[in-house]
Amino acid sequence: MDDQLQREIRRLRRTNAVAVGLLVIVSVSAFVQSRPGARTKFDEIDVERINVREPDGTLRLTISNHARLPQVVVGGKSYPLRGGTGVKSAGLIFFNDEGNENGGLAWAGSRSAEGYQASAALTFDQFDQDETISLEYGDANRRRQAGLAVLDRPEEPIRLFAESVMAIRAMPDGPAKETRMRRLQQDMAARGAVPAPRLFAGKRPDKSSTVVLADRKGRTRLQLVVDSLGTARIDFLDDSGRVTRSLTGTDIR
Amino acid sequence: MANLSPSTTRRLASRAYLVGCTLFGVAGIAAFTRSVAKPRFDEIDVERINIIAPNGKPRLVISNAERAPDVIINGKTYHRSGSNEAGMIFYNEEGSENGGMGFSGHTRNGHVSANAGFMFDQYGQDQTVGLTYDEQDGRRSAGLRVWDRPNQSVTVLADLVEPIKQMPDGPEKTRRMKAMRDSLAKSGLGGAQRVFVGKQSDKTAMVMLADAQSRPRLRMVVDSAGAARIEFLDDSGRVIRTFAASDR
Question: Which of A16, B58, B192, B229 has its CA 20 to 30 A from that of B43?
Answer without folding.
Answer: B58
